[in-house]
Amino acid sequence: MMNTYRFNVDLEVNGEPHALEIDARWTLLRVLREVLGLTGTKRGCDLGECGACTVLLDGEPVNSCMTLAAMCDGASVSTVESLGSSEELNSLQQSFLENDGGQCGFCTPGFVMSATALLKVNPNPSDDEIRHALAGNICRCNAYGRILESVRCAAREQ
Description:
five-stranded mixed sheet, Ubiquitin-like (UB roll), 2 domains, 5 strands
């Protein structure tokens, strides 16, 4: 019996092309974590409510737990792994570290990816613009003040 739920998807992930055979029901989050081994993107609520799984899809922040990978054929995906390395963080990651913007760290990749999208289009955002851009992300440690300060500092460093 042939499995009709499988088909091919071409994705560019963090600048690298991937030709994948996937199940049509898989989310982008599942493909990133389980197929490609990119575990920086976190599985939080699986309901699109917490933002821990935020990635950039063609430059726009999306909840990867709510995005079918099949719908991303031909798209470019950026995860937190694309921003820097453990040896050299990018300015936003460094700012989160220096300002304690990621207390437990679970939500941090999602916040960083949402902030990355914001700073790309608005390098000098107001506090209200930062809050609006990060509204889809939840921090269970309640580090919102430190997260806001982290984005502010990163904007000044650019």
